[in-house]
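Exam review. A common question shows you a sequence with its C-alpha cells and asks you to describe the fold in words. Practice with the pair below. Do the first one on your own.
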Amino acid sequence: MRTEALVSDYIVNGLKCPAKYNGSHYLRECVIALVYNGDQIGCLNSLYLSLAERHRTKPYNIERCIRTLTKGWWEESKCGGLFAKSPSNSELIHTIVAQVKIKMMKVG
C-alpha cells in the first residue's frame, strides 16, 4: 500500500478524524512529509512554512487549521483513548507518523 494511502486510511478510518475541517488535508500533508523526510520532525514551523507557500497562505493559518481539527476531533471522539487530554498539533502529528511507520513495516 502506498504511503499516501496508508496515511489517509489511518487518519480517516483509524483515528476517525473528521474531513469536514480544513486542517485535515494539511494534517495529511504534514504526516506524509514527515514519513518521507523524518529529519524535519523536530521543527514543524519549517514544515508549516513550506505548506503555506505551496497553498498560498500563511504558516499560522496552517497551524490554526490543524489545531481546529485537533480540538474538534478531540471533542467529538475523545480520540478513542489514544490521548489522556487534547493533544497538541505536534503530539498528534508525531503519533500519526509513528503509527504509519509501524504499519509500513508490517506491510513490508
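Now try the second one, then compare your answer with the model answer below.
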Amino acid sequence: MDTNDKQSAASPSGAGIEWRREDAVATVTIANPGHHNAITIEMWRLLKKCFQEIAGSPGLRVVVMSGAQGAFAAGADISEFTPRNYCSRTRIDCALPDSGNRRH
C-alpha cells in the first residue's frame, strides 16, 4: 500500500472494509451500517486481506480502526450462525496471523 492510497472491498451483501493510507497513518473502516457494523464471515476475510496489505507498507507507523456511520462494531454478525454450521463456518482463517498456538 503506497502513501496516500485508498482501497475497499465489499462482500456480496454490500458490507465491506475500506482502508486508506495517508503518510504514516492507515485507517481501516468497518462498513456494515445496517447492522451496526457487525462483522460477517466474509468481512473477516476482507480484514485479513487488508491487514496483509498494510503489513507490507514501508514507513507505516499507526493503524486506526473505525466504524462507518457512528458505530464501531457490534461484534460478529450472528445472523450467519446456525447450530448446524457454526463450528465449521467459524474455523476460517481469521484476520490474525497464525501464531502456532491457536486452540481448536
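Model answer, second protein: Residues 5-90 form a domain with the 2-enoyl-CoA Hydratase; Chain A, domain 1 fold (CATH 3.90.226.10). The two ends are 33 Å apart (CA to CA). Full marks require stating both points clearly.
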